[in-house]
Structures are given as C-alpha cells and as structure tokens.
TrEMBL record:
GO molecular function list: catalytic activity; iron-sulfur cluster binding; metal ion binding
Protein name: Fe-S oxidoreductase
Organism expressing this protein natively: Slackia heliotrinireducens (strain ATCC 29202 / DSM 20476 / NCTC 11029 / RHS 1)
Needed cofactors: [4Fe-4S] cluster
Signal sequence bounds: none
Source taxon at top rank: Bacteria
Limits of the Radical SAM core domain: 11-241
Swiss-Prot/TrEMBL keywords: Iron, Iron-sulfur, Metal-binding, S-adenosyl-L-methionine
InterPro entries: BchE-like, Elp3/MiaA/NifB-like_rSAM, rSAM, rSAM_horseshoe, rSAM_sf
Keyword rRNA processing set for record: no
Pfam families, sorted: Radical_SAM (PF04055)
C-alpha cells in the first residue's frame, strides 16, 4: 500500500481499509494546524491507486466501506474524482460506503448532478473541517471561506443526498471573540442539515502561527473553564437534530451520542457540572501534552 506520512484518518469511521488518493492539504494555511506542514498537495498516480486496490482485493475482497486519504481528496475535480470511485467499484464490487474528508471550498467546482453521480458510486459521507460559522473567526484563522459558503455548499450536498459532518473548534477565536464564535457557529450549522456535529478543543501546537501570536500577545487563548463556557454557549444555540460528539475536550459525562435535540438538556447540565466541579487543572495539563490534532 502507498501512504505518505503523516497518515491521519477519521477515528469515528470504519478504519479499514484506507486508500490514499491524494497527499497533503490544498489549503494548508489554517493558523492552528500543523497536520500537513511541509507536505505538498498532490494526486496519487492512478497506477498506484490501482495497485493498492488490487492488494485490497486480495486481502479484503468483500469490503463494504473504504476511507479515502488524505486531508481533502474531494478537492479533485469531478473529472478526476469520478474515475477513482469507478476503480474502487471495479476492484471492490461490494463497496457501499465511501468516506472522505473535505473542505467547504472543495464543493465549489462540483454541480449537484455531479455530486449525485458520485453518491451513486458510493460517496456517502464527508467530514467537513468547518471549525466555525463566524466570519470574523474564519478570517482570523485563515480558513479561506465564509459562513455563506458553508450554507451554499452544504445545500448542494443535501440535494445530492450526501451526508456530512460539521466540526466546531472550541477556543479558536480567543477570548475577545468567543461569544460570537460560539453563537454564530451554532446559528450557521443549524441552517444546514449535518448528520453529526463534532467539537474539539483548541491546543496551541508548536510551529503554528496562532501559538506565535499568543506568545507576543496578539492572541488571547481561553482557559479550560472558558473553553467549557464557550462550548456550553454553542450547545445552547445549536438547534439542528444530529448526532453530537466531543473530541479533544477531556471531561464531561453523557456528552456524545445520537439524537442531540432529545439529549440537549442533559448535555447542557453535564457541561455546567464540569464548569462548577470538573478538575479543570488536570484537563489543562492533558491538553498541554497534546502534540497533534
């Protein structure tokens, strides 16, 4: 199998098999991320993809799911993405679900009809690295799109019948814009139809512009308690009926699971309990030990 280091995969999806169709990230400019620092975005040659599919056919010939790597394979134009899905179906005819990561901007160059055709070839679920629905925050951390783009592009996925995830990056706006980040993200996400909303807490990793800005006083990171308070505000304002998970945020009971709206009051109660009684110092130490998203 051909893989380019580092290899990241969504841990909440079926994790085998993995198929690398691109390497790196087309954007690679988000101020909080070092995931693909130094990795040039490129398309894995089709002959390599076919060789990997042949190997998978010999080891897992009846695979029903497959996860595409790396950061945002969906950035490939329709004319290059479709043949890859066709090859997957040729070598693994039992495939039912193709999972991939994507950026909001990856959808701009695809029509609803093209997305529908990709869905018919197995593309069923996309994890969108949305991070925020607040324009100030999106500009602040250089995401490369705005809230209106999230709504517009997700509407195309809805029409095409492709499910998608949103992520909320807790703490990424800093103290000065925390409230707007939480409230506006919840409002924008609630104008779409995600199957899942996931939240992760910001860690300032070495080598990120956001850490450098924090070190010179240009970014005001939240304390662990303030992170929970921001997350609480986000949850209070989120109204889409979806699954809800937290990752990279330590602590809290009964936070993750399906049927968000039915569990919303319990999630709010758990977050308030963490704010009042949680071991926030320990959580902060654990967060400080993280070295990667």
């Amino acid at each position: 199998m051909h893989f380019t280091e580092p290899v990241y995969r969504n841990p909440y999806w079926p994790t085998w098999p993995l198929l690398e169709v691109t390497q790196g990230c087309t954007h690679n400019k988000c101020k909080f991320c070092t995931m693909y620092k130094g990795v040039r975005f490129d398309l894995r040659p089709l002959e390599d993809i076919e060789a990997d599919l042949a190997e998978l056919r010999s080891t897992v010939p009846h695979a029903r799911t497959i996860q595409l790597l790396s950061a945002n394979p969906l950035a490939l134009p329709y004319s290059r993405f479709k043949p890859i899905l066709e090859k997957i179906n040729e070598y693994l005819p039992d495939i039912e679900f193709v999972y991939t990561q994507g950026r909001v901007t990856d959808l701009r160059n695809k029509t609803v009809e093209q997305l529908r055709e990709l869905r018919d070839l197995g593309l069923r679920e996309i994890s969108m690295g949305t991070e925020s629905g607040d324009d100030w925050t999106l500009d602040r951390v250089n995401k490369g799109y705005h809230a209106e783009d999230i709504i517009e592009q997700c509407a195309k996925l809805d029409e095409a019948g492709i499910r998608y995830w949103h992520s909320f990056l807790n703490g990424v706006a800093g103290r000065s814009h925390s409230r707007e980040h939480a409230v506006n993200s919840a409002k924008i996400f609630s104008q779409t139809n995600p199957m899942l909303v996931g939240t992760g807490g910001l860690t300032l990793f070495p080598g990120t512009p956001l850490l450098e800005e924090a070190q010179v006083g240009e970014f005001d990171p939240l304390s662990e308690k303030e992170m929970f308070e921001e997350l609480l505000l986000f949850v209070e304002n989120l109204t889409c009926d979806c699954s809800f998970i937290t990752h990279h945020t330590i602590g809290g009971e009964n936070l993750s699971g399906p049927n968000f709206l039915a569990r919303k009051d319990d999630i709010i109660a758990s977050l308030r309990d963490e704010i009042e009684h949680g071991d926030l110092d320990t959580m902060a130490r654990i967060r400080a030990m993280k070295r990667s998203l």
